[in-house]
Amino acid sequence: MKKSKETFDTQDGYLCLINDLQKTQLELRSVYTNLQNVVEPDLIDYYIYQAKAVQMRYKFLLNCVKQIEDSQTKNPL
Fold first, then answer.
1. Which of 53, 55, 64, 75 lies 20 to 30 Å (CA to CA) from residue 30?
2. What one-character-per-residue DSSP string does 8-63 give?
3. Cβ distance 64 to 17 under 8 Å?
4. What is the pTM assigned to this prediction?
């Protein structure tokens, strides 16, 4: 049974999102580690803003992954 090009594109997109999600988790850990190790007020502010930005990207990617998983659950191929 052959899979359609759309199925491959969806799978490739899903794997790319999972990869980006994992990279974002690592980046978030790094930001929190850096935040714990700084004492300069400007750097503290910087890492707080960076953490917020990475958290927002993580939330976005997670929602995208959930949408794909939900659509695959409803319409498995």
1. 64
2. HHHHHHHHHHHHHHHHHHHHHHHHHHHHHT---HHHHHHHHHHHHHHHHHHHHHHH
3. yes
4. 0.79
Closest CA to 50 of 32, 67, 36, 65: 32
Per this entry, what is the length of the chain?
77
In a domain, 34, yes or no: yes
CB contact set of 22 (below 8 Å; sequence gap of 6+): none
For residue 13, is pLDDT > 60? yes
In a domain, 77, yes or no: no
Q: What digits encode the pLDDT tens for the residues 41-61?
A: 999 999 999 999 999 999 999
